[in-house]
Amino acid sequence: MAVTRVIAITGCDSGLGWAIAARAARQGLVTVAGMYQGTETNAAQALKKLRAHTCELDVTRPESVAGFKDYVTKLIEDNTDYKLYALVNNAGIMPTGDFECQTWSMIENVININLLGSMRVTSAFLPDLRRNAIDGTCRPRIINVASHCGLEPLPAFGPYSASKAGLFAWTRSLRYEHRPHGLAVAAFVPGGFVTSSNILASQEAYGEAMLEHLDEEQKLFYEKKIQSVTKHLRAASQNTSYDSLKDEMIIETFMKALLVDSPKEIYKVESMWRYKIYYTLLKLPLPEAFHYWLIKKFRNFPE
């Protein structure tokens, strides 16, 4: 019997999540898109027009994850040729600011969504994916959306970098655990696309919360920096919509991870020469002062 492949994706309200859900649906996969902002938004309606399924999902809430899993399970039960083929953990947030400035709520949320949220959703789907791998009817996989910051942490992205570094470590561990069963686990590093995403949409609120959180001495030290960074990031993310991500290299690299028979451990997009030069120079045994200068140039934040 021919198998129709089902893919479940988290964080599909905009940016990468929306783009890969749309691409997977166009590819002919039965696509279930997890939508934090609900199923009546313009983003959700656009996915429905592509015949994707949309389901409300908050990866921090166990009951919401269970509801998402139940939706996928019922869809498969109602269609005897459907098989769960892929889980894509894409949901994520990126509060930006020096560690001393970030509130505990920001720090806990970035770990809870980016790392624990991926674990939470994977726990729900893992038994079905493992069984499908063992029975050989499809070649299932889990794809965790990671970040260059998990490979080379950047100033002002400390908790975010920690969440993505943890995601890398967990991805490798999970890959080895399920290698004997034929279930592939891979990390996907999409590169820079913040100007084509709403991931910075909350940065202004983060900036206000950081200023409110600081004491007077800290505020005197950090206020100008927080304001200039917030202004810079606001300008970088203006005029974005749910479907702003058009970078074909990002999307097609993801599709390789999704469709190849035996996914490798990591798929990394370095679409600009600056990434390649940056990582090459960081590997060289040069003085830390040079590495610091290089990181500042690469990040390109106002001082």
Structure notes:
It is a single chain. The chain has a single domain (about 5-270), classed as Rossmann fold. About 55% of the residues lie in helices and about 15% in strands. It has helices at about 15-25, 40-50, 60-75, 105-135, 150, 160-180, 205-215, 215-235, 250-260, 275-285, 290-300, and strands spanning about 5-10, 30-35, 55, 80-90, 140-145, 185-190, 265-270. It has a seven-stranded parallel sheet, sandwiched between helices. Helix 3 (about 60-75) runs parallel beside helix 4 (about 105-135), helix 4 runs parallel beside helix 6 and helix 7 (about 205-215) packs antiparallel against helix 8. The termini are far apart. The model has no long low-confidence stretch (mean pLDDT about 95).
